[in-house]
Design brief:
Structural class: mainly alpha
Largest sheet: none
Number of strands: 0
Order of helices and strands: HHHHHHH
Radius of gyration: 22 Å
Number of helices: 7
Distance between the termini: 55 Å
Low-confidence stretches: 85-91
Strand content: under 5%
Shape: elongated
Mean pLDDT: 83
């Protein structure tokens, strides 16, 4: 039955998740999670009278859960205060001078650099943590490092 739902309604579920505000990657994950939920319910022996309606309702719930998690993640990140800015002499060959400049970056770039270089996460992990794609995390990293190169001068990386 799950393969029939996937075959007959997979694209419609995907489109539904997109309309509920998920990215294509998130929508794909939501559809897969929905199909797993259908499978698990059937395996438990639950009689699903209208599998199509059940799948769409489950997909809606998965999407709403995603939005709730994203909002909680953003509220948590907003509560983390930026590190205090300390002024150092230009040309200081000290790691703390670099991190002082990082503290002046926009919040998302700061978060990406911290997770990537302090927490030693891959771009996939950074993206998952921040609720963005790995390519968006990589883009924030690239932009932040370009700004740091300008502010720190030659030889900064």
């Amino acid at each position: 039955m799950v393969s029939a739902i996937e075959r007959d309604d997979g694209q419609a579920l995907f489109g539904f998740a997109l309309r509920l505000g998920l990215t294509a990657s998130e929508a794909d994950d939501a559809v897969q999670e929905t199909l797993v939920k259908v499978y698990l319910e059937l395996r438990r022996g639950v009689a699903i009278l209208n599998p199509r309606a059940w799948a769409f309702r489950a997909c809606h719930r998965v999407c709403m859960d995603h939005h709730r998690r994203s909002r909680r993640r953003l509220r948590t990140l907003e509560r983390v205060p930026p590190a205090p800015v300390t002024v150092r002499a230009p040309g200081t060959d000290d790691d703390s001078a670099v991190w002082d400049e990082v503290d002046r970056l926009p919040p998302r770039q700061r978060q990406v650099l911290y997770l990537r270089y302090v927490a030693d996460m891959t771009f996939d992990q950074v993206g998952a943590t921040l609720g963005i794609s790995a390519s968006a995390a990589r883009s924030h990293d690239t932009q932040a490092r370009a700004i740091l190169r300008k502010s720190l001068g030659p030889g900064s990386g």
